[in-house]
Amino acid sequence: MKRTGSAVWNGELKTGSGTVSTDSGVLDKVAYSFGKRFGDDAGSNPEELIAAAHAGCYSMALSNVLGGEGMTPEKIETSATVTLEMLDAGPTITAVHLVVNAKVPGADADAFQKAAEGAKTGCPVSKVLNAEITMDATLES
């Protein structure tokens, strides 16, 4: 399976701008710029898209791990915060923090935490990121 995204950039780094798109059309020439990425300008940027992808991937991975343990989630909500830092080597994604809230009827808290950790390391997006990944996982009653 292969999925494709594309980008077009016009101009120099700080005053230029670009767009990102996906073959599915979910993103179609969504604008991004230096100010949106490194400043406070409103709009999307690559790190925000990575955060959304990680949150979605993790939620699916957790559902899979829970299912393998005989637990059926009613709802899994995940947010991911990507940290971009300016290092000597240049801008670097150094960390991702996942916040997970799940409603899993009948789940044991310890079994849930074990599943949550397994999903964190097993999620394909987690595997591709060269960053520290931390997590707060809460089982709703």
Structure description:
The termini are far apart. With 141 residues, this protein is α+β, with helices and mostly antiparallel strands. The mean pLDDT is 95. Helix 2 crosses helix 3. The strands form two sheets. The protein has a three-stranded antiparallel β-sheet with strand order 1-2-3. Strands 4-5-6 form a three-stranded mixed β-sheet, covered by helices on one side. It has helices at residues 34-38, 46-68, 109-122, 124-128; strands spanning 5-10, 17-22, 30-33, 75-87, 90-103, 132-140. The longest helix is centred in the middle third of the chain and has 23 residues, at 46-68. A hairpin with a 2-residue loop joins strand 4 and strand 5. The radius of gyration is 17 Å and the shape is elongated.
Write a brief caption for the model.
Helix content is 33%, strand content 37%. It has 141 residues and is α+β, with helices and mostly antiparallel strands.
This entry's quaternary arrangement is single chain
Report the biggest beta sheet as strand number plus sense, adding barrel if it closes. Answer: 3 strands, antiparallel
Mean pLDDT: 95
How many DSSP helices?
4
Shape: elongated
User: Strand-residue fraction?
Assistant: 35-45%
Biggest sheet, strands in spatial order?
Answer: 1-2-3
User: What is the count of β-strands?
Assistant: 6
Output the radius of gyration: 17 Å
Low-confidence stretches: none
